[in-house]
Amino acid sequence: MTAKLLFLILATSILPALLFSQDDKWFQKGLDTNNPKKQIKYFTKSIENNRPTTLGYYYRGNARVEMEDYPGALSDYSKAIELDPKFTLLYYNRGVVKYSMEDYPGALSDYSKAIELDPKFTFAYNNRGFIKGFNGGLSGALSDYSKVIELDPKHRDAYYSRGLTKVGMEDYPGAISDYSKAIELDPKNPDAYYNRGVFKYSMEDYPGALSDYSKVIELDPKHRDAYYNRGLAKGGMEDYPGAISDYSKAIELDAKFTSAYNNRGFIKYSMEDYPGALSDCSKAIELDPKHRDAYYTRAMQKLGWRTIRALYRIFKSHRGGP
Length: 322
Known about the structure:
The chain is mainly alpha-helical. It is 74% helix and 0% strand. It has helices at 25-32, 36-49, 54-66, 70-83, 88-100, 104-117, 122-134, 138-151, 156-168, 172-185, 190-202, 206-219, 224-236, 240-253, 258-270, 274-287, 292-303, 305-318. Helix 1 packs antiparallel against helix 2 (36-49) and helix 17 (292-303) packs across helix 18. The protein is elongated, with a radius of gyration of 28 Å.
């Protein structure tokens, strides 16, 4: 699980004065530095030399997160929660830590507690939805993302994530609608254009897919997969020179892109460039000796369609097939 969830830090400008001693120089030193190692040192001094406070553990926990000391952060947040069981942000941040430690049930529990304490906590709904979706709870994820959107209709990430969830539920028109809204809110998000293009292509809307992939390339000229998929869309529109151009660009960006070689070979075969087709499919096989499609495409080139069909009929007759 590689995605990172948003970690939140309480603004020091709104700290209640009574939560820490005003003459606690160590606590103040911790607030005044951005160095997490020094923060851990200063907040530890504060905890050792004064009455332990919720914020002492909280801020030391934050610093430990910055150092990727997740067990230490978990311990600090838990101690802070013992001192103040209604401090909503503690549950949220502990949820992020548990997620980072792959304790997904624990993270879900903490996000749910944060939501119980603050039913309008959009970040907690969003993160809980992410973990539900990752673990296969698509309907629960859909519900959480929809709640985020209800609370914040301009939450672009919630539309994007809900679109992904709808894909998992095979609601492709719904996914396209959510990606479109995410794009409306953030016209420079290449991922939303890319995903929308994927599902436009799957629905055989080749011009729409082409438009979305072109936008991805405009935003990210080194997006290998956008060139490859735009090549697919152009192939669907019978723009074979354009498809070859895009596959070639994908290969330029990734010289080991076996599927791009294979597809370019297939298009070259369709254009009767047999030597070029044979070369591309052979390259795909060289890179991936188990690339079944490349062997099939190369066989077509060597034998021709009529021979392939004849061999297939012979094969089926020996097996007693129709």
